[in-house]
Amino acid sequence: SRSQLSPCFATPADGGRSNCTATMADIKVTVQKSSGEVLHGPETMPGTTLTQEIIDVLPPPPEDHVWGIFFGSVKVTPATKLSDLADGELVLNASYSTAADKPPPKAA
Question: How far is Cα 49 from Cα 26, in angstroms, rounded to an integer?
């Protein structure tokens, strides 16, 4: 049913276009390490912000390491929109691992 869909969705009646008439709500985002140290925020960002954009504003990780972003204990992909995770306020956890720990890209 429509009540389970996000406020912005495409329908055949829309010709596949989103039915949003306004921008998604802003979300207050804080990014912290497991120690509780705040790496970024709190900052109000559009719900359409991707987690990759959050990674881009974090301090650089140590050499040969990459940031990972987690919602609770679940790792989120760089293409995840903030609005897919929460409304209003959002606390994300960041940790880094060696780039070698990252799996190779999947073949297309």
Answer: 9
Write down how long the chain is.
108
β-sheet bridge partners, residue 22: none
- pLDDT tens-digit readout, 6-53: 444 444 554 544 444 344 689 999 999 989 999 999 999 999 999 999
Biggest CA-to-CA distance, the chain? 50
What residue type is assigned to position 99 of the chain? A
Tokens 């679940």: give the residue: 74
List the single range of 3-17, 65-79, 88-102 with lowest mean pLDDT. 3-17
Can you tell me the mean pLDDT for 66-71?
94
Among candidates 57, 55, 62, which has minimal Cα distance to 77?
A: 55
DSSP state for residue 107 in the 8-state scheme:
P
